[in-house]
Backbone:
């Protein structure tokens, strides 16, 4: 299986009155085509910074990020940022519109995704008609319409209440799997990371280094949280996060 993303010896820093401050230091990992990788770590450790580097929004201080030939990234933010003055369909086309890639073909693709994932009755509605879970589905569809190969998910469920979050997390990961996308998600929620990913990478506090990697060897699906291995993975990752010495 080929690599969609390959990161080698990546570092990121910024200057302060006291000198150079490293956020990330010597980060190396790869993500295979079709793999779903979750990155967990303490608050402020540079998880979102890592996504911004992969997306090309920031430049590294050292090391390299290689995206597979011809592949492009889509970025899903923490909040849905749906505009109330636009219809749901119009919102899902916004990313392609901004990048000047909106074609009749992509508009039809947006329509097909809305119908496929339970939003057919809301195509002409305003976002206020949608539940929190529906809004996140619409936001993901907006990210999918430009047809990226790699999805970068920046704590996409953090704005939702706990019960909604559980359901939406599964829904979104199901869509990503169904569409055959590679995904990198940052989260501070261990259960969330285990429930949807193929692998969990644990970062330390800043300057962040990789403390551990866990291959999740459980059948994918909404019964994963009931698997006896789930608690074992949770405890192992929790221990890594707590041991920041």
Residues:
């Amino acid at each position: 299986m080929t690599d969609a993303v390959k990161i080698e010896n990546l570092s990121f820093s910024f200057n302060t009155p006291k000198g150079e401050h490293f956020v990330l230091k010597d980060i190396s990992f790869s993500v295979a085509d079709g793999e779903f990788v979750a990155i967990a770590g303490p608050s402020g450790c540079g998880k979102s910074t890592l996504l911004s580097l992969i997306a090309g929004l920031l430049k590294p201080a050292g090391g390299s990020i290689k995206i597979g030939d011809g592949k492009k990234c889509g970025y899903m933010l923490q909040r849905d940022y749906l505009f109330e003055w636009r219809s749901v369909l119009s919102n899902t086309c916004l990313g392609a519109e901004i990048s000047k890639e909106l074609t009749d073909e992509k508009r039809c693709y947006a329509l097909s995704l809305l119908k496929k994932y339970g939003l057919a009755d809301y195509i002409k509605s305003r976002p206020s008609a949608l539940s929190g879970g529906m809004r996140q589905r619409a936001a993901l569809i907006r990210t999918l319409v430009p047809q990226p190969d790699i999805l970068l998910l920046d704590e996409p469920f953090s704005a939702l209440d706990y019960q909604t979050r559980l359901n939406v997390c599964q829904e979104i990961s199901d869509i990503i799997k169904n569409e055959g996308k590679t995904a990198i998600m940052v989260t501070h929620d261990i259960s969330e990371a285990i429930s949807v990913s193929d692998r969990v990478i644990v970062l330390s506090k800043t300057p962040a280094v990789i403390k551990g990697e866990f291959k999740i060897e459980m059948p994918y699906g909404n019964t994963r949280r009931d698997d006896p291995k789930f608690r074992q993975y949770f405890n192992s990752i929790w221990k890594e996060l707590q041991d920041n010495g």
